[in-house]
Amino acid sequence: MRTVGVEEELLLVDPDSGDPKALAAAVLARAAQDDPGQDVFEKELFGQMLEFATRPRADMADLGDEIVRCRKEAARHAGQIGCAVAALATSPLPVSPSLTVHERYRWLAERYGAGARDQLVCGCHVHVSVESDDEGVAVLDRLRPWLPVLTAISANSPFWQGHDSGYESYRSRVWSRWPSAGPTELFGSPARYHRRVADMVATGVILDEGMAYFDARLSARYPTVEVRVADVCLCADTALLVATLTRGLVETAARDWRSGRPAPDHSVSLLSLASWQAARQGLGGELLDPVTLRPRPAARVLYSLLDLVGDALDGSGDADRAAKGVEDLLRHGNGAREQRRTVERGGTLRDVVTECVRRTQG
Predict the structure, then answer these.
(1) Are 217 and 249 a contacting pair, CB within 8 Å?
(2) Cα(244)–Cα(83) distance, integer angstroms
(3) N or C: which end of the chain has fewer CB within 10 A?
(4) CATH number for the domain formed by residue range(s) 4-361
């Protein structure tokens, strides 16, 4: 059974005003005091962000429990210093990000200017184990057209600097400003993958291989494929659904590779349009069908994804959980829909933050 790990970035906010607060260092200090030697929580680019990483899990119920536990622990540590955590991929309220003191982050800010200063965005990264770089690159080549669907499922960033952005996942549009971000061409082999990353570093435009911000990549730290397209999800159940479907996609892609089935040869330009469409529409309209790259209702695309990974989900015992997750998501909407629903009911953006703090811990 392939193991799965999840990294989530959370927003630190004032529990009364809803404004983001640059208190990550204090939260981390509190976490270290309460649990010496803890390695779950980490700092991020800005002081208003807190990241946690789960352990690799083979059982998805265990992974779901750990996501919930990490969120509650983050909320507890934050509460002890007078702030709260919210699973928000962007701040609904205006914010001036505070750069974390770190040589790498200072280099990013100086190198990329306003493009880096805008990156107060919170994502969800899913790591799925692979047997080798050969299998990993084969998986990357076959995942490409389905990644925008994961963006649509997770979309949780409709508001930006006090205004409705018009997007379901504005985080993904902000993230795409990095020069190395986005979909990739077919690699075909580990040698070509590693050569491409080395060539990118050699340009001097990016600092190192850690800045190869592909939508999906080989992890430099673990024997995993790392899928990086999701917003941090408002609800832990949605994060678990994204992780479950991601493992299903990885297993399905690996099986296709072993059986000799070629990777779809979609162009990067069309995949970029699919990513844009997913960010704009989320689940509320049409996505570009991953097979044809033509418009299709989002619900039908989700059911096609379930069909595609059905055998893999059956093999891991996740089929019923995934089907229920998709049905619940289509019935209630993703995080972006829930945020907008608060405003439609007469709430303010401050109310949006308050509700999201509650949902993050609930």
Answers:
(1) no
(2) 31
(3) C
(4) 3.30.590.20
